[in-house]
User: Fold this.
Amino acid sequence: MDLDKILEFAFQFHGHRCVLMPLGVRMGALALKELSVEKAEDRDPVALMELSDGQAGGCLIDGVQVVTGCTFGKGNIKKLQYGKLALTLVSKEKKQGVRISVRPEVMMEIKSSQFSQLRAQGTPYSQIPKETADAIIEPILAKKDEELFKVEHLKEYHLEEEPLLYRGIRCSQCGEIVAENRARLVEGKPYCIPCSGYIE
Assistant:
């Protein structure tokens, strides 16, 4: 695995230079190695990310997606909403998993960087100078895996298979097709969620 080439592509895919995205690449690569599996072509392995919606640090997920092949489009990556920078990569075939978490001291080093201080002040990623981003990216990526991450092997990890739903139904109001299990009945007629007024 040529991590330099993967990182080059990942920065283009991600759209800006930051430290957590390449940290996600390293995390995902380590998880594949520890679990002895290849990049996902289909829906195995599965990446369970512990980050939450609205949490700073979501850039980590893009790095994991690029290197593991676990993507939201394929449905083999999920957010667990724990608010933590950790990944559990699960092989459904092997019924095993590996959990990789960022070491607290690494996060403290990142948090104390000028890059993170600018982000905390609201400076957009794209307006932070490359040299400021690289001042934290380079020393972090220079560390060994064992300095960056804690690794936990999970034996006998069973993940329930979620079948893909291919059936759709037409919304009675807008006429668009909605997955059958997401349609809502209003007075006996099917509606998509926005047209139904349904609130979860």
